[in-house]
Amino acid sequence: MSPMLIGIVPFGVVCGVGAITAGASPIAALAMSMIMFSGAAQIVATQMLAAGAPFAVIVLSCLVVSLRLMMYSAAMAPYLRPLDHRWRSLLAYVLTDQAFARTIQRFRESDDLAGSASYFLGGGALLWVVWQLATLLGIVAGQVVPASWQLEFVVPLCFIAILMPLLRDRVSLLVFVVTAMAAVVLDAMPLRLSMICAGLLGIAAGVVADTRKGARG
Amino acid sequence: MDRQITIWLLIFTVGATTYAARMSFIAFFARRAMPPWLAEALKHVPVAMVTAIIVPSIAFVSPGTLQLDPGNAKLVAALVAGAVAWWSGASRSSHNPNPMIVRQSAVLTIAAGMIVLWLLKYLVG
Predict the structure, then answer these.
(1) Which phi and psi angles does B71 have, rounded to 5°?
(2) Which residues contact A177 (CB under 8 A, 6 or more apart)?
(3) In whole angstroms, what is the distance from residue A105 CA to residue A65 CA?
(4) Which of A150, A180, A195, B43 is 20 to 30 A from A79 via CA?
(5) SS (H, E, C) A110-156
(6) What is the chain A residue with the closest CA to B82?
(7) What residue in A sits closest to B100 (Cα-Cα)?
């Protein structure tokens, strides 16, 4: 779990900076990390808020970003089925990209359900604590660094670090190109709807490309 | 609406929808498997949404003003950061199955991008 703990620090700092530069109070910025506990959703919310998007559009966009959590939920579900509702509700809260990646293998290979569930909960709790500390660091940085340093630019830079390793196959490249072009062309759309529309167009392009690839061979 | 109230409402609403996504198959549809078409589509969510988030903050110098030339310091900084991310990602083995997980190489990418941004600002004005 420890390499993951180091890995989430820059992202957590970026979330703290993003919330502060979007005008959130330090308390709200920290509450965001505690309650949402999802870097991608937090960044989308603060970026769109800063861009002046209306409430409903922000919520909808965050929902699309969080859809990937449904994949993890579906993959985890069969292993958690024997647990009672309270355990499942608690484990769902700490279900993140990192906790999923570290834990799913253990559930698949081990028959010790209680052991795996404890590992999941312990790892998830650790990630949670580190996430809050990293956010605090970002909140401080966001307040003391002068605006002329354009610290808010760390948000797209952090996402570039996430994006580049994803672009390793033709379909992903296509999704990237279609989304990027759509984001530029649709930018003038009202209510900052361009982000969600560009994203959905990119996903549609990916699905079409997959279908055609499947049909060919 | 007051900015702080909007932020607090967002925290609770998005917190609830995010938690619902996490609970979806663990609790709500516990007896069902995810339909294959949905799994296929969800695979593309990370690339599409990350791209949709970052492109406006890089390609536009101010709201509504597109600038796709070297005069846009953010664009140059983003391209350099992209090259660094690609190189540092490639030099590691591709054993990371989920790139949504930010790795240590993110620090390098962020540092490179910010340094280029500051340099261009300092040199060009």
Answers:
(1) -70, -15
(2) none
(3) 24
(4) B43
(5) CCCHHHHHHHHHHHHHHHHHHHHHHHHHHHHHHHHCCHHHCHHHHHH
(6) A160
(7) A162
